[in-house]
Amino acid sequence: MRSAKSAVTRWFLGVVATVLLVPGSLATAVQAAPPAARVTLETPPPVTGAIGQLYNTSPWARSVLQMPTSAEECTGSGSANGCVQRFAGGDIAWSARTGARVVVNGPVRTSWWQNDGPAGFHGYPTSDTVSGLRNGGTKQSFERGVIAYSPATGAQRTSGSIHLAWGRAGFESGFLGYPVTGESTGLRDGGAWQAFERGFVVWSPATGAHPSMGAIRERWRESGLEEGEFGYPSTDETTGLRNGGSSQQYQRGTIIWSPATGARAITGAIRSYWSSTGGQNGALGYPVSEEVRQSSFVYQLFQGGTVYWSAATGAHSTTHGDVHNRYVSLGGAAGSLGLPLTDKLPRAGGLVQQFANGWLVWGPATGARIVGHPTYKVWSVNPGEFGWPVRDTWSDGRGAHVAFQKLETIWNDATQELYSAEAVDASTVVFLGDSQLDMDSWGEQGARAAGYPRQVVRSIGGIGYVSGSPAVGGGSATDAVLQDRILLPQGNPGLVVVTLGGNDARIGATDAAILSQANRLWDELRRKYPRSTILVNGVLSRYDASHAQRRWVDGLVTREAALRGWPRISMSGTATIAGAAGDYLDGAHMNQTGHNKVAPLYASALRYVLGK
Fold it and tell me: Which of 261, 263, 275, 578 is geometrically suited to a Cys-Cys bond with 257, CB 3.0 to 4.6 A?
């Protein structure tokens, strides 16, 4: 009788415990059970099937759950079939979809039952209750989400995409910590959010769910969150960037943070340009300011320079260094140069950058100097012929000047021509020729004797009317003059002399090619010097057979000059006539003695032709 009484006592205590632990509706059902049913509870209810399999084979489940306090309660059929059996320490819930799982007494179980248990939005558990988590927390997964609990946050549900985003962040052990609210809906475009201990997860149909926290979130909040200029986050935050930085992409921009620069936004064309240059790993580094909008352009400061954008010019940067410093000293985009049209580019061992109103050209020994567009175009083809600019461009009545290391140039807007700045007058002769003008040549000596003491000489070895030279980019004298690769002086010299043709004889150029190119060159010289006398020299030669082609080209060009009515001097056989046939360095070039012998004959011919 004593043992029967003890069994009744244990049953009664179990019922009391169940009333205290189970939600009110279930307790009411137990209290309303008919007397006959109470008599059957004098012995523990059976534990069978899948629930019994778990209970009987898991020491952990038996130790946590203790004795059963009710029989299985089953609903549904087929794949929707499920059962729950209550124990002193919790429940075992089973369904055909999830198997048998332990739900331990505590806040997670309470929350589950407060939301109608397996019949509610959580459904059946898909894992056992897990305890001993960070900060004394517990957690359990269900068919439609997870219930997580900590003493500081209470029991909260996470589900769907927001739950997955929390998982990518490391769940409760990650940087978000435990959820502190349930999911809230009603944001713009059907979005939703959920708060966690150290941030939020934000979701929209267009972007999915992504964590939002820390300094990047604060910058997003300042912009108006999803209602602002950036819209929803479209990626999770990326950490581990250079120098400890992190970034997050949004629908309409990027927010990037580093310890040295804080959180800054980058949007639109400036963001695209910055990304194309390597982003924070490139020359620009992290942004140190937000975009600044002016009347017609936008700019943004970075660790390594400034990016400018306008609808007319696109996005370009000036990166730190002498070119950038000079640009800033000139007033930047609001100054005389205007907006950049290119990035900084390497050129001939230096650096160049184009702006709306000119170029900055930097040489290692000369610094950054302003060069106008037309002058730069010519300089850039063959910078070695000019050297680096030594001062900024300046203008006077003659045009826009640039002083280079080797010469000074003038661009004249009226003629659309680039000239050298050598002063010329009626006593000046300008020579354009090949290596026959080397040394103190017969041509220069003869011109001085004929009354032209001031001389500007352009002599390029290997060049001709047709024949080209690497010194002027591989082109002929005709092409070089037309393209301003040979710069002639501005003004009205008294005499312009062309001494070409020997190299055309050397390469066997056709008569037609020589005459075509000669006329093009002579036309250009007449255009440049409408008031100057232009004289054509033939090809200096001997009377031996090896110079037959030189004598032929001499006759070809002097006859063509005669047809134009221009003064000309044939040099055919002149070396032999002057007694200089033995004064040659090679097959075509005389030594200084030879030049000295030919010069008097040329001077006499020049005075005669010019009527002096």
Answer: 263
